[in-house]
Every structure is written in C-alpha cells, then in structure tokens.
Design goal:
single chain; alpha+beta
Length: 519
Amino acid sequence: MSSPNNLEINGNLTQHPPAELLVELLQARLDGSLRLSHHNNKTIIYVTGGEVVFAVSNQRQHRIFEMLLEAEAITKQRLVEIPEFTNDFALAKALQEKEILSASSLKSVFARQIEAILRDVFSWHEGLWVFSPLARIKEDIHHKVDIYSLLVEVARNMAKETIVRRFKSFKESFSRKATAPAYINLLPQEAFLLSRFDKAFLTIDEIKALSGLSDLDTLQKLYVLWLAGFLYRQHWDAAFDERRLSAMSSARYELKKQVAPPVVKASEPKPVAAEVKEEQPVQENVVEEKAELTLEKYLEQVEIAETHYELLNIHFESSTAEIKQAYFGLAKRFHPDLYHKQTDAKMHSRIQNAFSEIAHAYETLRDEENRKTYDFKLRKILKELEKLKPEEKARPRTEQKTLTEASEIFEHGFNLLMEEDYEQALPYLSRAVTLAPNVARYHAYFGKVLSVDKNQRFKAEAALQTAIKLEADNPSHRVMLAEFFIQYNLVKRAEGELNRLLAIFPGNKEAKALLDSLQ
C-alpha cells in the first residue's frame, strides 16, 4: 500500500495545463483535490468519481456575495444584516432560511461560481499544481458542472500553434470511447473525424491519412475531441503515471477525522472549512481472483462478453461495492502496463483493448443513473436479438457480441435522428449498418438520415431498397421509401411503391393516407 506522501502528485502548469490535468483526473475517475497557484491567485478543485463537484478561489470576484451583488439578486443593505456573509456556506444557509433565495436558486449560484472559477483557471499558463487523493469534499457537497462544455470551449479557442505544442509526436495514439457526453454538439469536421474511429487505437499519422485533413486541423480536432471526452489518448506526456493512478484508484480509505477550519493566509482560498475530510489508506479488503484466471482466459472472457456484467464477470444484481471490487481486481492483474515488456505488439494491443472494455463497463455500472440507462438499453438489445433468425442466433459469440454492439450504436443514432440532429446521427447509423449488414431496420434509418442531404439522394434510396430486400414483409420500410420519393417530388414512383405495398398489405392505413394525399 502506498503511503500518503507517495499518493500526492505535483508539477507545474507550463508542462501540464489545468484543462489537461482535469481531463486526466476525470477519465481516471479519481476522488480528491487539485490545488493550483498562479502568482497570488490560488484555487482548489474537488473531483469525485469522474466529476468536478466543487471549487474555491481566493479571488474576491468568485465569492458568492460578490456574484449576488453583481447580479442584483441582493442589496448591500440586506447583505450586511447577515453575519459571516463572506463565508459562502454561511451566506447560503442564511439566504435560504430568510427565504431570500430558494435551494434550487442557490444550487444554480454555486454552479455558476464553480464555472467562473474554472474559466479563470483554464487561462493560467504558468504556476504550480498539487493533486491529493486524501483531501476530499464531503459527500453531501456535490454540484453539477457542465465541465466538458467548458473544456470544449477552451480547446476551440486555443490557437492551433499552441495546440501543436501539446503533442509529443505523431506517434501518439487515440481510440474512441464507447460512450461520450451526449450534450456536446460537435462541429462538422469534428464529427467527421470522430466517425473515422472504431475501437482500435490509431496513431496521429493514421488518423490524418483517414481524415484527409491537414496536420494543423487534425491536431486541433483531436485535441477538442479528447478534451470533450470522446477519445482515449495514449503515449503522450501525461501528468499522472498509470501505475500511480492505479494505486490511487484502488486505494481504500477510512475517515480519520473532520479537520477544523485551518488558519489560512488572506491570499489563500479556504479549503471549505469543516467540509473536507482527511483520510488515510487502510489495508484493502479485496477478494482475490481465482488462481486459474490466466491472461489468455481473461482476454477470452472479455472478447466474448456481450454485456458489461459479463465483462466484469459479475451478476446483474451486484452492488456498487462488488462492481468496484471486480474491476480493481482485474485492473491490478491485467493492466496493460504490467505486460508492456513481456508481450509482442499484437498481444499488447489485445490487452489494451480488453482494459478499455472493462474500464468502460466499470464507468457505466458504478454510476447509478448511467447503470439504469444501460440496463434499459440492454433490455431493448435483448429483444432485438430475440428477433434474429435461427441461423443468426447460431453464430459464434464474438459475432453475437458485434450484433449487440451494433444494436447499441443504432439506438444512439436513432435517438439523435428523432431529435433531428442528422449530422450527429449519421456516423452512428452508418456504423450500425457496417457491423450488422443483415438488419433491415438499420439500412432503413440509415437511408432516412442520408435523405436529408440531396447529394446523398441515390445512396439513401439504395439503403431503403436494401431494407426492403432484407425484410420484404415489413410495410414500414416501403412507406419510408414512398416518403423519400415524395420528398424529392418523384410522385409517380411514390404512387407505384404505395400501390405495390397495398397489393401486399391492403389494410395499411398509413399507405392509404399517403396515396390519398397524392391524388
């Protein structure tokens, strides 16, 4: 077990800018505090399980009372009536008790405060930083911050020449995350570059060749996608050594004491007096893996797994503690770094891919809301698999896993299509068709999203015709083709398709209504 001093990491902001530090902490899903200093300015950012949950600063403009005065949400006269109004938590409590602001309004104020602090910190190009997993925020202090939108803002506003210096070489590699922030609207070239990825890691040279973009554009778009949480990054100048990250992630802590408000100089931010808990490592209580689980068996287990639960070899009703225990048990034994010098490139690539899979499974299942969403999608996927023909069900498990992945990708693309976000939906629906070319529904909706672009008209029609060939007894695909003809004012072809449909399905009300509208 690492000592507290060994778990603390520090460095300078010139080598590792604040935005990149946060991305590393969030992707590693660490708990702790990141302390940053820039001249006389000091800030502490608290992270919990892959989220920024709180931040404090010693700058006056970031205090709650200053923000309320500036927004004219309170007068100076009312403010001075509140004892300790310079203490953010005391002020918030008093405002709620006096019914000046509601609890929801105060949450919004704190969220704006944190975002303002982060925006300021992201502009720091020099200074020092220290990350400690031992100084954590209390569990009941948890503010939702749209961190990835802020990170995208940082990346897009950064000069391309500055971004180039953030890359060590063109041998750095990236791979696509299975899930990513759904609320980030990518620009066309960013979405296009993202669509070039599959599960494998690609070097910058390979990505450039696939995208056809210039060197500067490729690096700038990659930097945006990485900061935005869409991509994993390897072989770069990371601030946190992976072995150290693994040690911090797997460490178990016990609450030692609540610290009294520390004596802090006026120029330092108060680290949330009586809100931080100092914790010390204790002996882990992790169930040891079975001795017979060799590396090869582990890789096979991951490669044939159809669900996140099978990836971690746990029951679907496992508790959060059991999920964490299973993940860290596997991570300790089969982390890619442990096999870097012991295996060839092909085997090491398999180990890296397997670790990415179990890490993604853990990230999804450890969060209650994400797990509920995943379980809901899983039920839909299982229903989709039940519709497969007997010969398709008899396929090897690796192929069935591909069908499961295709179903999940299609579902995401379909939701984007229903929200009329055609640009974002296109790469997902295209990928679903590639993974499962015999599923008519995927071709039909791929054709539908293509039909939005008149330059893709012929490709859209081909996709819809393919859906009909694959599932001739499904009238909905023929209706979609007729709607496509109507969209492009091909009335005669639409009438012909609707008449053919009604000859097979004379009672189809949707087809009758479309035909009546044409006549």
